[in-house]
Structure formats: structure tokens, C-alpha cells
């Protein structure tokens, strides 16, 4: 994510169901949270999702969203019932493996009780029919995120949570899953989402757009953007490159010219981080001023309008969000306290790109930031209210460069590619980064990381 303003929190819902059954001996409910210290009720326990298959319809005139979510998962305990995160929307029918299940609302949670318990290790399918008027989640510290109704459509976007405002989900990055979307909207509107585009159908004044992200994805990285867009479709390194700019923006304006650099910047980052990790690439620009940030939505970042004021291009923000495709998307977090692994490396990628393209050197940028940073704020474990604070970005990037200077270029650039290869499509944490850096450098780095990530005074430069 590139900071300019931020996002989400919690919401509400209601649900009805059919027959229910009490748990058998040895079966118990899944937890109503994933156990994240920062956001205890984000996500849920007791199961692991493999994929979401969404078949939805959205009417911008009324703001109504409705349809069906088919969720494939595996039980990680003997489950008597399970929760999904769902906000503002109401489920009308739920089945588990084809049998009617009961559902109830608990704040922003959909509580599903299957007719019989689900044994540990069993793969199962939940189908939820639901509808309502989606909205945003409110978080006083982080801002709003989720579904935004626009003048010509809608946008689903937000970090650290947003997916629950448009589909039932295990809304925590520790449970990554694939996503398939069929979104039906009135003719004349475009739909952008994650992954590879599929077949498009038009019938009775409505068009169904299809998208599929086949690599596992943290739920906050899912997005849908509906409106009137100028879409450019090409192929880059054998993969679809899809770039969308609102029709209201100039076809050759700074936004379009900036996103046209996506392929070039991706190629450079791949030379540093290893092969680009997804089946598609691109980006979407939005004009709604409520979105004062850019977000690394998987395979197709979304950029708010604030980055393209004036006449100049902004390749830095493109480099930042594309770097996240490796650091944050392909390799996601276990817990939000390690957010520096996402933002520190993405900010450092901006520095690398600037130097590579003939601008200010990385060392000079390091020196300037080192002199101006508030060292009282940690980059590691910053606290939920400072999740997107300056320390996470700037001090995170300073830590990355200081690590480079400490272990040397050979070990450092090997570290980058080793990290993205070993943890591809998975999750990792700061402890794993320290272990990998120590193994590749042969150095004890615990004191280094303690000073640069968690200390409250300025560490000496390497």
C-alpha cells in the first residue's frame, strides 16, 4: 500500500437458515477470530479456505449487490459450526456439502451451523446466497475501507480488511485462497478484478464479466472496480497485461503514462526479486477522492487519483505497488505486526527504481531518510493504530538498506530471491527473515534487527 489516506474495520449483517444440529461429542465451534494480536476478530478459526467462487450481480441505480458465494475449505478441527466475516449483507440460504445449514448474525460475522459436524481434515463446500446494500467498514484509527458506491458503479478496496463487505470470507491474510468472480452489471459498464479475464456474456441489457486469480491471495487483496473505464489489453512476457483508466481521464494523461510503465518496471523488479509471481499484471486508476491511497491488489494494483495530479508521471508509486506483488502478495503476512516486511521492501523498491532510472542514488536517499526519521517509533510491531505510519515505510526501508550494507550485496540480493522463492504463494514473518538473512550471510543479526526495527534511538550506520 502507498499511503495517502487509509481504511477499514467492522460492520453488520443478518442471516436465516434451515435445520440445525448440535455438535456431536468431540466437535466444537471454530474460533470467531484468527488470533491476530492487533485485530483479534479478523478472520476465523477451524478451517482453511482453498477457493472462493463468486457469482454476483450489482445494480448501481439501487446500490443492491446479490448473488452466490461457493466456498471450498478444509476443516482443521472437528467443527460443529464455523464463522465467516460478512458486513452489511444478509444471507438467505446456506448449504454445507449440499445439505441445508442454519445461519445467524453475530455483529459482522455469519455463523454457519451444518446439519452434521465436519470432521478434522475433511474438505467441504459451503454455498451462501446473500444480498443487500454493501458499504464501508469504519475504523477511527485507520480510516474506512470496503465497498464504495460511486456515481457510475462501485469500488471494493481496503486494507487491513475489505472483502467482508462484498462476500463471506475468512478475512485475514493467514488464510490465502484463490478467487473466481462473475460480476453482472448493466451494459455500458466495465468490471475490473484480480487475475486473468474470462468469457464475457451480454443478455437483456446486462453484461457478465469474469475474472480468475489462480494463485492463493490474502482476502484484503481482492478487489472489484465497476464503472466507465478505458481498458488496454496486451501481453507482457506471455501474460495478460490489463490496464484501466477512467474515461473521464485523458487517454495520454499522467495516470495513463505512468501505468504504461508497468511492464518496464516489472521487468526491472524481476531482475532483483526473481520471476514475477502471477498469471496476469496491470493496474486500475480510480477517480474517487475518497480513495487517497494506492493498494497492491493482487496482479492488478488500484491507484487513487492523488498520485497523478499535474502533468508528470509517477513511476515511484507504480514501482511500490508492483514490488508488493512479491513482498506482501505472493509472500504474505502471518500477522499484521510484521507489516514492515510489506512496506519496507516496497519503499526500498522505489529507491532502487529511482536509482536504476537515472535518479537519486539509494545511498543518498538512505542518508536523507536516516537524518529525518523519528526513531522513537518502531517499524517492527508498530501497534494497530500505527499500522501505516511513516516508521513502517521509511524506517522499514532504512532497515532493508542497512541490512544490505551489513551483509554485503552478494548475500543481500541472494536473500531477496531466496525469500520470494522459498515463500512463494505462502506466508512468512520477521523471524523467518532473520533466519534466512543469517543463513545466507553467516552473521548473527539479532542485535541488528532489534536496533533497526524495534529500538527507540538512532542506530549507528553500517
Quick structural gist:
By secondary structure, the protein is α+β, with helices and mostly antiparallel strands. It is 23% helix and 30% strand. The two termini are 28 Å apart.
Written overview of the protein:
50% of the residues are buried. A hairpin with a 4-residue loop joins strand 2 (47-59) and strand 3. 23% of the residues lie in helices and 30% in strands. Helix 6 (390-407) crosses helix 7 (409-422). By secondary structure, the protein is α+β, with helices and mostly antiparallel strands. It has nine helices and 25 strands. InterPro entries: Aminopeptidase_N-like_N, Aminopeptidase_N-like_N_sf, Peptidase_M1, Peptidase_M1_aminopeptidases, Peptidase_M1_dom, Peptidase_M4/M1_CTD_sf.
Name its key features.
single chain; 462 residues; alpha+beta; Immunoglobulin-like; Neutral Protease, domain 2; 2 domains; five-stranded antiparallel sheet; 23% helix; protease; metalloprotease; hydrolase; EC 3.4.11.2; Aminopeptidase N
